[in-house]
Each structure stands twice: as structure tokens, then as C-alpha cells.
Amino acid sequence: MNEQAAYLTDTINRIFAGAGSLLPELVLVFFFLLLVTLDLFRSQAIKKLLPWIALTGFFATLLIQILGGYTSEGVQFLNLLRSDGLARYAGILFSAAGIFTVFLSLHNKPLENLRQGRGEYYALILMLVLGLNLMAKSVNLLMVFVAIELVSIASYILTLIIKEDKRAVEAGLKYILYGTLAAGVMLYGMSFFYGLTGSLDYTLSSFWQSLLAADTLMVTVAAVLVFAGFFFKISAAPFHFWVPDVYRGAPMPIVALFSTGPKIAGIIVILRFVAAFEDPALATSFLDVQLFIGIAALLTLAVGNFTALWQQTPRKLLAYSSVSHAGFLLAAILAFGTGYTSSILFYLTVLLFMNFGIFLFLQIAEDKLDVRTLSDFAGLGWLYPGLGVVAILYLLSLTGLPPLAGFTAKLFIFSKIWEAYSVSSQPILLVLLIAGVLVTGIALFYYIRIPYFLFFKRNQTEEKKVISLSNTLLLGMFALPLLVLFFKPDLLLQFIQNILAQTL
Amino acid sequence: MNDFILSSLIFSPLLAALVVLLLPLRLQKLIKTITLLGTLGQMVLAIWLYIQFNGAAASNGQQGYQFVEKLNWIGFSLGTLGRFQIDYFLGVDGISVSMVLLTGIIGVIGVISSWTIKKNIKGYFLLYLLLLTSVMGCFLALDFFLFYLFFEFMLLPMYFLIGIWGGPKREYAAIKFFIYTLVGSLFILIVMIGLYTSVIDPLATATQLGLLEKGIPQPDAIRQVQQLLQQNMISSADLVRTFSIPAMMEPANFIPGSLLHVLSGVVLWSLPIRFIAFLLLFAGFAIKVPVVPVHTWLPDAHVEAPTPISVLLAAILLKVGGYGLIRIVYPVFPDAAAYFAVLVGGLGVLSIIYGALCALAMNDLKKLIAYSSVSHMGFVLLGLASLTVEGVNGAVYMMFSHGIISAMLFLVVGVIYDRAHDRMILNFRGLAKRMPAYTTFVVIAFFASLGLPGFSGFIAELLVLVGGFSAPEMSGLLPRWLTVVAVFGLLLAAAYYLWALQRMFFGKYWIFPELREKAVLTDLNAREYLMLVPLAILALLFGIFPHLLLNKIGTTITGFTQTVLQSGQEQLHMVLSTWVQ
């Protein structure tokens, strides 16, 4: 009896000791509960307030995580969640993504007309971001699973928040079916790992030592199964089939969020998972797993870029573009031993701005200018020169051309892969490098189609609509970092480095 | 003034572009005037720089660049992996100074030629100025990253200039141009990344190690760092990686064990990796030159582009390719340059002959001239491959001279197209009767291009051929028969120009019946004289007084040739020694 009491006290003490490190998550939970409670009131005044409450929550977490100081290195929450610099930087990105999503939602026409569930909508965004934060902090397989499921469930509902839209419902259904399948497969793989090692904490060296002793085939199979779940979240091939449907059906702010938030979180999870491979001795023992990731990266690059070539609607084009970016990130993850974390975080940051920018552009085009297919863009660049030029900036950054941050991000990643190749001479790295550079050429071919219609084709209408000031400001806000981060990338890199070292 | 002249050269068009951006659409005259002022400013600066440039100053390796501007741009510590450094690093030597002068002159001619553009004036001149900025940047940058930035940025204005203001098939031509050049620049990107991970900046590393604080003078500190580096005595945390092109030229700056080090011994697809890097870089720039067989974008782009853009494309954009070969590919990979000399020279000769044969077969005057460009740029390759002082001088002379003459050629095509909206050779006959002044300039341009003595083209071709013929003795890189074949190119050039002249301009006046209604065949107007006369004078001036150019470029090129040849043989020996093992 006493023993149990002691254990209980101990656990409670540990919970209290570690709870401080979860401050951003607790703030998110608080605002979620606040939002849900306030949503019960019928008053229109309160309903109008809801997005701003969500916004306050995101700004609060953003501020907390930029300022830091709520946690110190080494504090873990019950061996489940680790609040290190990596998680903190990811948290900043998630909060920013949350803020951007709310901004986009405030300008979204279908969401404006939404009768029911506006409160839930914003509450679910908070919940999703909470899940993303947990994903980035997890160091335990089971915790990873729970966090991913939290994100997934919020995602399913957000996809079909506009229930009248048939395509949204179809997308939501497909998403749920694929999602549960991926989750099941991942859980199956995790149980393999648990059986092989007796531990769920994959950052422990004993975890990897036991895997070394286990049957190689079993380990590879387990890794493949677990990675299936991760790949689903970052929309990498061959688990990308939900992407075009969801991107076509979901509301635009949610699409923008999906293309960044879960992708960032998934990459961080994989980053933590393969962190053990930084040790070259260990890395050589898991060549199969690396080869598997490499082939998946190649496949993702190929599928994303080649399929994008044939798309006729901007939403689907950007869906496959999102797949292709997952490919670049996966390729970068293989550059072990080169200190690549800051380069990947740089890429993810740039991705955040590019994607929200282009989806905001698309939202304006859809809501205001009735654009459904690529050819509907015809001549709009001459009617709205500012909008057209900003779109070119986003698209060229997505392609990876100078003078935009997308180029710098790709340059960093490619140089890491080259360095890793010159250290380890793994042929897969060379293949990835060449493939990555060459698909950039293909990428130009489809990205340029939007400016092509914007500027090269005659417009069908002369009627000019007004683009609101707030939209213009937002467009500028997403575009400016792309230029700044090209000309002074060291500013952000230094910031990332400081946060990773928890010196800020 | 001297301190910032290179930056002013790059940014004077950009400044004009900013002013144009702020002007309202309807002030069309003002937009044109501002553009003209911006380019005139650039031209004056270019001429001033050319006069101030000391052609006799020695030039080798890190030294020898004049008017250098070097600022830290991006610097970042990678912890245990050292630092990386990107500099805003500009400078001119004899090779770039000639290209700067050319860009300055052609920039102004292009604006005058654009005076009649009607559609979307503001957008057009904005893109035009951006294009000039990036071309000038390419010729002045000494940091590979900076060079690449300008090199890539050229594509975008060009894409829109062809795609929006071009002829009937403009969209196809624009995308073809874009994709071809982008693929080329991606090849360059791969090698740039490889070089960056392999090369250190010895001076910055010396600073990092604190050598300079100890009072060791700079040259000694650099030598000391290079020695320590080659003995693997510097910890990787102290290495400062760099994109500086002069640093890449010295094999002593390569980190031992990096893939592109001469002794790395890495073999890829059964070639040493340095050779692969050379081939990739060469391919990237060859697309821009363009070299047969990757030239197919050029005729399309030229035919569809509006006249001023064709002028710019032929006169200065193609030169960026040749310039890249001379500035980067040859000095950084002299070993591979020696190894692949016959390949490079052979492709040059192939371009000369194939381009000339295609030109002979063309019915469209503009296409004929486009192919003649391919043929003439082949001489640049041949001269460079010979690695003799005459040959390389000839290559640079050819780039300059072709810049002047091809601008003239495209302008005269523009004249007939403006009047008749057609430029098929067979649709016209006896134009000399109706347009005597125009015909005079056509004759001047054609004869200058086919290498008549007295024009700059003759000097260029002569130098290249002399270089080619002396190559077996001087550098031992090219067989003599290659140059013999190239001579036939001159013959073919005479054939296609004279034949076109005879068909279109001489004989009894006649034009294709369907064209008669629209065509108003008046002779040259004042604006056209303003463009053609200075170019004709320049072609003559540099044909009669070649030392005007050779005095400026000579010393640099002698140094370049000796360095490339000598270190090429040494490094080739080292690469081959590891390859055989």
C-alpha cells in the first residue's frame, strides 16, 4: 500500500515538475475550452468574437515560444514529451500557421456564409495545432500515435466543415478511410518495435541496441509500417492518394494549413526518429531503412512533379506540388552527419510562407474572380498587376529560383546532401541530388503555367473588382519574407541555431 | 567614384526601373525617357570604366582584378562544420571589361529600337531594365553565388519579353527558351554546390585561425593556410567555405578528401568526378552560347522575339554563355579543359559548319541570321579550346565583335519587318532600288559579319584561326584538321550572305503580291540611322584599330592562357594518376 502511495506521489510530482514545459499546449487547451464554452451562447456579438479569441490563443503561444524560458533543456514530461529547441522552433511555426489560417479564414467567402459550426471550426484549428505541438515533442511511439490521431481527427472534421459541398464530403470520407488505414498500419508497426525492444522510447540508445540484435527483416518491416503512418501525414508517396481529393474539397485556409502544419510536424517526427543515425556506426547497420526512405523520396519527387504536369485545376496542381515538397524534405533527411536540422527548419519556414501565400492568392482568385481551372486565370495578370506579380513571386519561390527564399532553401538542402555524399559515398544520395535538381526543371514547367495564363493569354472580362486592403497586406506579408530570407538567410539561420541550442 | 563604379553599373538600370515602376501608365513618353536615361547612364559609366581600366596590369589568380568591391553578404557559422561565406564580390579584368562596354552600348541601342513598342509600355521597359541589370551583374560578379543569381534572374524578364511582346508563336518560343536555359543552369547549380562544399577562402580562414592578428602578412598567411589545409591540419570548425570564383581557381584551396579535389580519386560513370563536373558546367553554359546540338531554342526565340529583344539576345545574352566558359569553367577545371579540348573544339567546329549550312537553307531572313549567330559563336569555342594566346584573344574579340555586328543584323531585319510585316527572302527582290540607304547598311552588316577585312569580324576570325593553326605546337591540344574544317565556315558564311543579298536586294524590284497592299517601303528614318550608324562605325573602328580592344584584354588573356595551360597539365597529371589506380 505504501509502495503504491509512494509511486503515486512520485508520478504526481513528476507530472507537476514536467507540466511547466507544456505551457504552450496548456494555453492552447485553455483557449480551446474557452472557445467551446463561448460558442454555447447565442449572442451574435460573442459569435463574432470567436475567431479573435482563437487568434489571441495563437499569438499567446507564439509569444511564449519565441520568448522561451518556460522550460529548460532536459526536462521531459513522463518520458513522453520532450520540450527541446527543435520542438520550440516547430511550435513557433505551428502558431504562425494557426495565425495565418485564421487570417485566411476571415477572408474566405464560403466560411463567411457558414451558418453552423463556425465556433467549432476555430476550436478545431486550435485542437489541430495542439496536436501538431504534441507531435513535435513526442519521443515515445505511443505518444506519437496519439498526437497524430489528434491531428487526424481534427483534420477529418475540418475537411468537411462545409457540409453542403458535395466535394468536401467526398474528400472528407476518402480522407477518413485512408487515414484510419494508415493509422492502423502504423500502430501495427509500432507494436513490432515494442515486441523487438521492450521499449517505446525511440530516442534511447538501448532501443536501437536491441534493434541491432533483432532480425533485420523484422526491423525493416516494422520501420516500413511505421513510416507509412508518417508518410501519410507529410503526404509522401505512396501514401499521397488523399492529397488531391482533400485539396480539391476542403476550404482554402484548411488546405493551406494541411500543406504546412502536418507536414512540418511529420518531418520533425521523422527527424527525431532518424536522429540515432547521426552516429555513423549505427547508420551503417540500418542501410535498408535508409534505402527505403531514399526510394520513397525518389518516388515522391517523381509522382509529385510528373503528375502535377497534367493538372488542369490550380488546387490539384498545388496538391501535387505539396507532394513534391515532401519529396525534397525526405531527401534532405537522409543527409546524416551534416548538421542538417537548421537547413530543414529553414526549408520548412520558407514552405510556410510560400504555401500560405499561394493559397491566399488562390482563395482570392476563387472567391473574387471565379477561377476554377487554370485557363480561368487568362489575362487576369493585366487586370490585377499587383496580384499577378505576387503570384509570380510565390510560384518562383516554390520552383526554387533566385532571388527568392525557395532557392536558398533548396540550395541548403542540396549542399547538405552533397556533403553527406562526400562523407559516406552512398549512391542513393547522389541519385537523390541529381533527381532533386532535375525535377526542379520539371517543376518550373507546371508552376509557370499560372503566370502563363495570367499574362500571356487574353482576358475574357474587363470588369475590375476591388481587392480588399487586408488581403493586399496579407499577400505582402507572405511575400516579403521570401525576399528577405533570400538576401539575408543568415538572420533566420542564426535564430534557428540559437533556439536549437536553447540559448535564446 | 572608383569605389562604387561597378555597383553603379549594375544598379543604374535598376534605379531607372524603380522610377518607371512608380510612374503612372499614361506617361508613356516619360517612361521611355527614363529608361533611355538609365541605359545612357550605364553606357557612360561603362565607357568611363573602359577608359580607366588599366589593360597592362598583370592578372593572375586572386590578384589582377580592378575596381574590386567586396562586402560580406551572407555569413553563417555551421558549428563544427566551419563557416560558409557568400560575398558581394565584384571586379573586372580584361575579359569582363570588354563585355561591360558591349552591354553598355547595346543597352542604349535596344531602347532606341524599342521606341515603337506599343503594347504595355510600362511592363516592357521595366522588364527591359531588369534584364540589363542582371546581364551586367553576370559580367561583374566574382562570387559564384552572385553570378548564379544574376544568371538565373536573366531568364525571367526574357521569358516575359518574348512571351508577351513576341510574334505569333511567342508562347512556345518563350517556354522553350526558359526550359532549355533552366536545365542548363541546373547543371551549373549542381557543380556550384559541389565547389562550395570543396573550396575554402584562405584569407577568411586565416582570419578565423587568427593568423593575421599575429602580424603575419596576408600573402604569407594565405600560403600558410593552403599548406596546412593540404596537410589536413586545420580542424573543420575553422574552415570558411566560399563561393568566390578566384578562390576556386587555385587547387590549393580545395579541401583534401572533398569530391572535387584533384586527388579525390572518385570515379563516377567511369570518369573522374572533376571531369563530370566540367562536362556539366560546360553543358550549362553551352546551352546559353548556344552550341550545336543544344542550340534549337535559339532560332525559335529569335524568330518570335521582337526586334530589340532579338538584338539583346544575340548581342549580349549569348555572350554570357561564352563568358561563363572563360570566367568559370576553364580556370576552375583546367585539367578537364585540357582533357576535353578536342571535344570542345570539335563542338565549336560543328557549330560553325552546321550553323552555316542551316543558314544557307533558311528562307526567313531572321532565321538565317539566328543560325549565323550559332555559326559565329562556334569560333568562340574553337578559339578557347585551342588555349593559345591568339585563339583566346580571338574568342573574346569574336564575342565583342559579334555583339556589335549581330545587333546590326537584327536591326536591319527589324527594318524590313516593320515596313512589310514579312521577312521571307523570296518575297522580295531588288530592294536596293527602293531603299538604297537601307541596302547600304545591309551590305555593311553582311560584309562585317562574313569577315571582310576592315571590319571587326575579320580580326576575330583571323585570331581564332591563327590560334587554331598554332595550337598543335603551342598547346598541343587541338589537331590541325579541325581548324582546316572551320575555315570552310568562312566560305559558307560568304555564300549565305551573298546569296541572300543577291536574292533580296539586287535585280529588278518586285515584292510578293499579297504584301503589296500593306507594305510601305520607305527608306531608313532618323531613328534607324541613329542606331545603325554608331554600330557600323564601331564595327569599322574595331576592325581597323584592333589594339583598341586588344590593349585592354591582352594582358589578362595572356595570363589566363598560361595559367590554364600550365595548371591544367599539372592537375591533369594528378587526376590521371589517381584515375588509373
TrEMBL record, chain A:
It holds the Pfam family Proton_antipo_M. Its EC number is 7.1.1.-. It comes from the Bacteria. One of its GO terms (cellular component) is endomembrane system. It catalyses: a quinone + NADH + 5 H(+)(in) = a quinol + NAD(+) + 4 H(+)(out). One of its GO terms (molecular function) is NADH dehydrogenase (ubiquinone) activity. It is a multi-pass membrane protein. The keyword Glycoprotein does not apply. The keyword Membrane applies. Keywords: Cell membrane, Membrane, NAD, Quinone, Translocase, Transmembrane, Transmembrane helix, Transport. The chain crosses the membrane at residues 15-37, 49-67, 87-107, 119-136, 142-163, 175-196, 216-242, 254-277, 289-310, 317-338, 344-365, 377-396, 428-448, 469-487. Residues 138-423 form the NADH:quinone oxidoreductase/Mrp antiporter transmembrane domain. One of its GO terms (biological process) is ATP synthesis coupled electron transport. It is found in: Cell membrane; Endomembrane system; Membrane. Belongs to the complex I subunit 2 family. NDH-1 shuttles electrons from NADH, via FMN and iron-sulfur (Fe-S) centers, to quinones in the respiratory chain. The immediate electron acceptor for the enzyme in this species is believed to be a menaquinone. Couples the redox reaction to proton translocation (for every two electrons transferred, four hydrogen ions are translocated across the cytoplasmic membrane), and thus conserves the redox energy in a proton gradient. NDH-1 is composed of 14 different subunits. Subunits NuoA, H, J, K, L, M, N constitute the membrane sector of the complex. This is NADH-quinone oxidoreductase subunit N. It comes from Pontibacter arcticus. The gene is nuoN.
UniProtKB/TrEMBL annotation, chain B:
It is a multi-pass membrane protein. GO terms for biological process: ATP synthesis coupled electron transport; electron transport coupled proton transport. InterPro entries: NADH_Q_OxRdtase_chainM/4, NADH_UbQ_OxRdtase, ND/Mrp_TM. Its main location: membrane. The keyword Transmembrane helix applies. One of its GO terms (cellular component) is membrane. Residues 141-198, 274-473 form the NADH:quinone oxidoreductase/Mrp antiporter transmembrane domain. The chain crosses the membrane at residues 6-23, 30-51, 88-112, 124-142, 148-165, 177-199, 266-287, 308-330, 336-361, 368-389, 395-417, 438-460, 480-499, 529-550. Keywords: Membrane, Transmembrane, Transmembrane helix. Pfam families: Proton_antipo_M (PF00361). GO terms for molecular function: NADH dehydrogenase (ubiquinone) activity; NADH dehydrogenase activity; ubiquinone binding. It is found in: Endomembrane system; Membrane. Belongs to the complex I subunit 4 family. This is NADH-quinone oxidoreductase subunit M. It comes from Pontibacter arcticus. The lineage of its organism: Bacteria, Pseudomonadati, Bacteroidota, Cytophagia, Cytophagales.
